[in-house]
Amino acid sequence: IDNLLVEYFRRQMSQDPDMASAVAAIRSLLEFLKRDQSETLQGLRENLTHAIERLEETDSSVAVSSGGELFLRFISLTSLEHSDLSQCKNVMVERGELFLKKISLSRGKVAKLCHTFIKDGAKILTHSSSRVVLKVLENAAADKKRFTVYVTESQPDSAGQQMADKLRRLNIPVIVVLDAAVGYIMEKVDLVIVGAEGVVESGGIFNKIGTYQMAVCSKAHNKPFYVVAESFKFVRLYPLNQEDVPHRFKYKADTLKTAEDLNHEHPMIDYTPPSLITLLFTDLGVLTPSAVSDELIKLYL
Amino acid sequence: TKEEKQRLRKEKKHKKGKKEDKGPTEKGTDKEKKAVSSSALQQSPSSTVDKPSKSKAELKAERRARQDAERASKQGKKEPGSQASSSKSKAPASELQPVVKRLPEHIQVDDPAMVKKLAKKLERQLLQSLFIFLQIPLRSDYGFKVSLFSHLHQYSRKAPLTQQISIPATVIHPSIVRLGLQYSQGIVAGSNARSVALLHAFKQVIQDYSTPPNEELSRDLVNKLKPYISFLNQCRPLSASMGNAIKYIKKEISNIPSQCKEEEAKKKLLSCIDNYVNEKITLAAKAISECAIKKICDGDVILVYGCSSLVNHILCDAFEKQRKFRVIVVDSRPRLEGREALRRLVKRGIRCTYVLISALSYILPEVSKVFLGAHALLANGYVMSRVGTSQIALVAKAYNVPVLVCCETYKFCERVQTDSFVSNELDDPDDLIVTRRGKTQLEAWLSIQSLRLLNLVYDVTPPDFVDLVITELGMIPCTSVPVVLRVKSVDQ
Could you list the residue ranges that cross the membrane (chain A) (predicted)? Predict the structure, then answer.
């Protein structure tokens, strides 16, 4: 049944490339829940946790783990009093569908909040390829604003080039710069917008490697550094520095299994501390980094 | 005459412009208390006279009648019906009041009028509880104070308050006297230890308490506790944790229903206190240590300052869970508390290094994490801790070393402070005198007019220097302290 789950997940991801990986994961979990055969509530929970772990192994992104945990919490939020297991399951499935609907709309909400911060004639710097940032820029363009976008190439997978292609299709003027040219280009730009793979308790973010550099540069030049992220990316971690980020997020799952010495591997993710971030745009509203902890307490406690 | 005196006092109060929301009702009881006290003072100025019980009852009846009359006259005024005196009288010198339109008395030592007022208040509290005419003596300040801190008390350890109290006539419970002595001599030190000792002493008090006739336990016991708290405050200013504990006890006592029998009520209170100690201190320490162990990795070099019971507990637990780390203990004069921490850690087998705080920037490049304890966490995210802590946090920030503060939630306090001057504690200045090679340089410091010795106890660290606060609710950033306070008040 694990393999079926992974297959379903992969199919979801390939069917709709625009969907966030966490959304695909939650769809698969919902499907898993519907097909699950366990007799007790406890067994059901255990199976779900196990399923989430399997999904994390397949796609080692922070969003899958945070999305999975939030899903589990959301469906078991209030006590399930029905004595009949199938009734309980129906309630849980209902809640799961509701959760899924809510988070599918979250990207739109974020984009609506953020695009007003882009003024006419602005020069924006962004890092690698993020679907949320793309939606924001789409909304801003639809609002008849004129702006230029600088995208970093973002090696090793050249995701920046894909972002540039997508932007060109929207008729937004875009320039691709080297990762090493961030310091050079910073004086020309007005603001920096990046996405996030995960938002941590301190208000900092996990994102593609190179984000931390960009944040430090923008702080040195006093340019605002904005982060756009949906609320299901909030995760209950509190890293103190780059070392403190767990290995399962930094490296891909297959690298972790095969590598002999992790010191020679390149991490995919770095941690940007909250002191470098100006504002976070989420579907819960526009937050300062210190307010993230507040929201997390509300979500998780 | 009495009436004239009262009118004069009222005018003085209006002139000072000190508005209080319980103004009229307070003045009502003030009047009669002052009336009783002035008449009593006229009769017997000495401190060892026992009034026969008959006149006690008479005075009580008189006072009741006057109170009723005042109450009736006040029905028309805007104040709601006056409560029992317990709710009106404030906790002495408590800086935890939400309506802070006055400065607390303990930081107005340079104003002679306030000092006189404090003396009168101490006297009044005694009278209110028992009618035996005894004063809790005001402890006198010692030595010259630095002008920036002249609003704080500075006592000498050689003159404890207990010498001025004559034991037979004392109204203070002996365990409280003992506790006060232990505080003022520094035998019981450290905020957790002080709070636990306080709660144990209160348990003793409650056990020995018996409700006088015609009185309700819930009101009378609170009144009984007030002079004890004043006394302890005179011995050594209350810490934030002690303040919170006292608030809790008072709330529990006043929530006892009046039909509850005395034995039951006492048992309930004792179990409440035990629960509080267990939940907020013992179990919280366990939860914090579990959380903190996740942050200790193999190969870590951890810096600690002074002796914090919580940090020591965390390090010992981590060592038991087979984490490989070594500890650097930073210490400072005059208390040299680091030696106690060093002793405890070395006994467990943890590898330690010992430095004085002047060598801080020398050893910081080796350090991977800094663990600090806290005396209190203020509502704006500032950390109040032993003097020297903010220095360590500052230098650690400069070297980019993460600073972690470990603190239980019962030490969170509603106060807001941005500097270490406003509310602090001055320790005995004689502690700074040290004898090296037979020579004591500062021996005659009192005779030098232009010399001042300053021995501060606490300082305040801004939240930008602190990376993480570990509480039993989890790991939170320093700026989320007001959120926790809000959640706690919702819980209660």
Answer: none
